[in-house]
Request: fold
Amino acid sequence: MDSANGSREEIDRTDLLEVIQARWLSVDSWFTKPDVQHLYHYTTSKGLIGIVSTGELWLSDLRVMNDAEEHTYASERYVEIRDDLAGVVDDDVLGSLVAPVDGTLGSQCVFSTSAEPDAAPLWSMYARGAGFAIKFGAAELEAVMAWAHPRDDARRDAVIDAGMIRMVYEPAEQAVILVGLAEYRAECRAWLEKFTDPNLSKQIMDLQRRIEVAFESARKSMKRSGFRGEQEIRFLGRVRPDSDYWEYREGRDGMLIPFIRFVPRSPDRWPIEGVIAGPRSDPAAIESARRLLRQSGYDVPVERSKLRMR
Reply:
């Protein structure tokens, strides 16, 4: 009898390890990286000068964004999905569909890009029509960002878990991600009650931590479907909760923006492959951009936007 019980527990343990691995893969698949070759960062002339002259990318505090609704939309989606699924899914799953409390996983800093190379709304919003869209190799930028770090030596350990995420605009996809994470969260609680093996418990708790980070990423990657034309892809880094590493700059309308300066480690420059000048740019500004890039060591083309804006 004891031998049979031991055998059964071992089978359960083996099966669970396979399930845990499958859950990791599922979570990763919900945050698949976009299949694009290039990413574009829309910015002003001042932004272009700063990036190519200093070699810095500024990752801003996600809590201070141009779109204030971002802080409320994801919370609204949690409530809507819980209401829609009441009586349809298990109560323990609905009870697990709770957003992380802001700041429990640390603040997050963000560098925003788009898969769209010449989008009128982005020109108007971020580059004022006469700015620039910096063209990066997508895979190359992801690789360099993985090893990039804050410029100040005293801030080197400020940011952890930096990575690329795509924004999710469709309500149906948002629901699949949130409900799936809630189901996995509930599963982990049940497993920890059933299994007492220390090594197995560690595997479960590792998955729990991944789920909590995924919940936070999901909340930061959701926008209303009306914004889908932006095709935004973000580089997010978690800032340690106890850190005081922010610098500050003035943003739009006098807003005070916390940010962290990032520099590449290897290679020692960002993978800029070209620049698009905004629809309102004149020939002199385009030629100035070419000279600036050459002087900064970037032998890349500068093209004018094909759009026309008044």
Q: What stands out?
A: The two ends are 83 Å apart (CA to CA). The chain is about 45% helix and 20% strand. The chain has a mean pLDDT of 84. The first helix runs from residue 2 to 30.
